[in-house]
Amino acid sequence: MSEQVQMDVLAYGSRMVRWAPLGKLLYTFSLLILALLSENIFVPMITFCVGMCLMAYSTNFRLPPIIGLAILEAVLIMVIGCGMVSILGDPSEPAVFLKGRGEFLWIGIHITENSFNHAWLIMFRAIAGVTLMLSFASSTPIPHIAYALRQLRIPKEVIEIVVLVYRYAFLLLERTEVMWNAAKCRLGFSGARRSMSTTAGILVNVFITSLEIAERSQPALESRNYNGSFPIYRMPNKIGLYWFATTAAACASLYIIGYCISTPNMAAILLGAV
Known about the structure:
The chain is mainly alpha-helical. It is built from 10 helices and 2 strands; from the N terminus they run H-H-H-H-E-E-H-H-H-H-H-H. It folds into 2 domains: 1-140 and 240-274, no CATH class; 155-235, no CATH class.
């Protein structure tokens, strides 16, 4: 089962599928913006917990493999990136860990209190963003997203491009994977020169395939009386005032938490025990 089919099955089987897509979009992006702008690490921490709770409720408290793999990959990438942020501290500030500048792969290691705290803040911001977007994607099918964009008065041409890109991006990825596996079975990656030639051939074939798909799709859509909008199976609810009230209450609570509670010193908490 492809990633697109898995996401569609997950979204249509969600307990939140009938919720107003524009309300979910408003709530998700409001919390996301607040988590990205806040300098208090508690705000993205709480936002991360909210995203996990929404995802758990949406999937009936089951973590599908595709969601777990996406979270794991994102966490690994963020840990590497934040590790680079933490070791590249300001040389004029005193080091709190690995005192005395060391070097690793020609990179000067200088972990300061500010760089360490900033790395943790960036990591929780990123994790909060990933969980919020996954909770939205796992509960909102692409036709519902298009419906929400129409309510925002987004041009019809832009919505059409979004829907078609979502559909055909996964299709091209599947074709690319088939070509890649076929080339691997024929020892197409046995050497550096041969690998470059095989990769170039795959990219050319993918480009040609995309043109062929586009040529076939246009008459197929026209033969089905396509008028620029895709039908929606089981129309979702429309946004109500309670969505605005819920979003405002959540944002106000996070703002108060970030304003009233002092930012913890992660360097003192974690490195102090080392």
